[in-house]
Design brief:
This protein is of the alpha/beta class. Helix content is 39%, strand content 12%. It has an 11-stranded mixed sheet, sandwiched between helices. A hairpin with a 6-residue loop joins strand 10 and strand 11. It is globular.
Length: 494
């Protein structure tokens, strides 16, 4: 049962073939069995999850109308607040903090009867591409425990790939949902900025952060997207508009006549040959279903990485100023407020977080603001215009999600630039605020590890990427004869 899709589990629950309590216990047992090797979870809420499951079962027995995902378990990235549950953001700075409120995403999950199993590991304050920056140790890729599961949301993606949960929540600032999905053979979606509430999402970069669904199938992601999406008055950036018809699009999967634009700048040098081969094979499968493949150019994408690493650190240097050892989290040392704050930040923040705070503070400093942060925002505008022009030529845009498959843990830990390049294909969508999806394209010939296919859609047209994603997923399933995760090695065997 734990290898079923969330949609299949929901159907079994609705038919009474399994109870939510039984399903939740199965996943808790799987966590107990494998997570000592994977380290996907920072906190497992056994008591809370079982109680939630009992409540859903009681409502179902009474004949109450329930949501499609009621009773299905889920793993929650530890950057979302959940009342009374430890929320660390992968940092020592928040060790022991239990929020007094739920994030809107958690509120909506509870309203839909989704059972929250616990909080997943992540790069500290969502800063990283490998989940090696967690203060609580790295997460391991279930395909090969010596490799990274992507970042910053590697815990959520690894939990899916290790069958510890059928659904998960991630957040995506520069690729932190999509890149982990690519390297673990799962599905990850960054909705349009403002399409899912950020209230209760501990901020890294407020103009870029976006929560979204993580799953093992496109349809599962669509149901989760529908559950958590929509307007929220508690989030000033929330879009007051209906959720795009993502579930209907995922069930449709008809791409006949759809124009699919291949971004010229997001392939070539730096991309693993096996990843590009799988990408091109996926394009052929879409073309065989009646899609029209066209090439588009987005010339300013070459500057996206540099612009992002000015904008995101600048916003993080402002956002993380709230961690002052006075109100919540750890407190180290004695003396004046300034002395305690200094000592606490030295101990509480990790190396990558300190690096980005320093970069951002410098970029915002007097005399450098216009040259760095101001210029980066101008590049951001040019990238948005690139997307606007490209979407005049195509309905969706596509690229490989990440330039390579999962690399070895520690391989890039001391080379920040090499690490940052993992997000080269995902960052442009965050800068423009549009939607992006990653789904598996197959196993690369060099190492037998998963690669990802990225689909991008215009703002608030997220249904387009679900339609194209469902079409490709169906074609690949026919080609492979089984879900990609069925090809994963036995956990711990490699």
């Amino acid at each position: 049962m734990i290898k079923s899709s969330a949609t299949q589990m929901a159907a079994a629950l609705a038919k009474g073939e399994v109870s939510s309590l039984e399903l939740t216990q199965l996943h808790l047992d799987q966590i107990s069995k494998v997570d000592s090797q994977v380290n996907a979870f920072l906190f497992v809420d056994t008591e809370g999850a079982l109680e939630q499951a009992k409540q859903v079962d009681a409502k179902r027995q009474k004949g109450e109308k329930l949501s499609p995902l009621a009773g299905v378990p889920l793993a929650l990235k530890d950057v979302m607040t959940q009342k009374g549950v430890p929320t660390t953001c992968g940092s020592k700075m928040l060790e022991g903090w239990r929020p007094p409120y739920d994030s809107t995403v958690v509120t909506r999950l509870k309203e839909n009867g989704v059972v929250i199993l616990g909080k997943t590991n992540m790069d500290e304050f969502a800063m990283g591409s490998s989940t090696e920056n967690s203060a609580y140790g790295p997460t391991h890729n279930p395909w090969d425990l010596t490799r990274i599961p992507g970042g910053s949301g590697g815990g959520s993606s690894a939990a899916l790939a290790a069958f510890e949960a059928p659904l998960a929540i991630g957040t995506d600032t520069g690729g932190s949902i999509r890149q982990p999905a690519a390297v673990t053979g799962t599905v990850g979606v960054k909705p349009t900025y403002g399409g899912v509430s950020r209230y209760g999402l501990v901020a890294f970069s407020s103009s870029l952060d976006q929560a979204g669904p993580c799953a093992r199938t496109v349809l599962d992601a669509a149901y989760l997207h529908e559950a958590i999406g929509g307007y929220d008055k508690l989030d000033s950036t929330s879009i007051n508009a209906p959720i795009p018809p993502v579930v209907a699009a995922a069930k449709d999967g008809n791409v006949k006549g759809m124009k699919i634009g291949v971004i010229k700048e997001l392939q070539g040098d730096g991309y693993q040959p096996g990843v590009l081969e799988l990408f091109n094979q996926s394009l052929e499968l879409l073309a065989a279903q009646g899609a029209e493949i066209v090439e588009v150019s987005c010339k300013y994408f070459d500057y996206a990485l540099a612009a992002y690493y000015l904008i995101a650190p600048s916003e993080c240097s402002s956002n993380l100023a709230r961690f002052d050892a006075m109100r919540y989290g750890i407190r180290v040392g004695e003396g004046s407020a300034e002395e305690v704050m200094n000592k606490t930040r030295q101990v509480g923040f990790g190396r990558e977080v300190k690096r980005r705070i320093i970069l951002g503070t410098y970029a915002l400093s007097s005399g450098y603001y216009d040259a760095y942060y101001g210029s980066a925002q101008k590049v951001r505008t040019l990238i948005s215009r690139d997307f606007e022009n490209a979407f005049q030529q195509a309905d969706v845009l596509v690229s490989p999600t990440a330039p390579t498959t999962a690399f070895k843990i520690g391989e890039k830990a001391n080379d920040p630039i090499a690490m940052y390049l993992n997000d080269i294909a995902t960052i442009p969508t965050n800068l423009a605020g549009i939607g992006g999806m990653s789904l598996p394209s197959g196993l690369a010939k060099e190492d037998g590890l998963p690669a990802g296919f990225q689909i991008m859609a215009p703002a608030m047209q997220d249904d387009r990427m679900y339609k194209a994603g469902a079409a490709l997923e169906a074609a690949l399933l026919t080609k492979w004869g089984k879900p990609i995760l069925d090809s994963a090695p036995v956990l711990g065997a490699k």
